[in-house]
Protein: FAA hydrolase family protein
Amino acid sequence: MSYVFPPPPTVALPVRGSSESFPVRRVYCVGRNYAEHAIEMGHDPNKEPPFFFQKNPDNLVVDGRFPYPAMTKDVHYEIELIVAIGKGGENIPAERALEHVYGYGVALDMTRRDLQGEAKKMGRPWEVGKAFEESAPTSEIVPAAAIGHPSQGAIWLKVNGEVKQKGDLNQLIWKVPETIAYLSGLFRLAPGDIIMTGTPAGVGPTKKGDVLEGHVDGVGDLKVEVV
Structure:
């Protein structure tokens, strides 16, 4: 097959302990999946079914740098556990969902909060606030075969050495198996899909020169400089 121009390279994430990489197909993000974060964003976590938005595969970056984006004055950090899908499917039962997980990682869902807020007021999609270039600094993927399936443990983010976000994976409103089950009823999941599972309370603004350090117990760490 020939193309009118060279196709872009496949986005891939490094895999811990392997020379092979994890190719990324789609990036699904769960909104407001920690109760305290839902409350700080002005929502009642007890009344909402899960909802999703997407980032683009090429928003994922692994070089430890986050270039402060254009057209915004209010960029927020959101630390998250990510799930890497290794086996696809539709209408996956929650009790079988973890069989579809290849591994886990740590990522930041960087958000142009001012642009997202304007979109919310007008009932418009969030992509302008969420799916911009390099908006998802990401760690390596850690195979579930090596660490199991973490369902509890600390998740936190420090900014310039000060803890800003802190929670526990057991505080997820929609746990990983439930999220996969629900999402696979909306979309046909496939190997290479990434699910960003939501962020705990404490989101806030960042600026050039900040150093962001994220951690998920049993999974790993992520260090990013805002440039």
Q: What stands out?
A: The mean pLDDT is 95. The chain has five helices and 18 strands. The helical segments are 35-40, 113-121, 127-130, 144-147, 176-186.
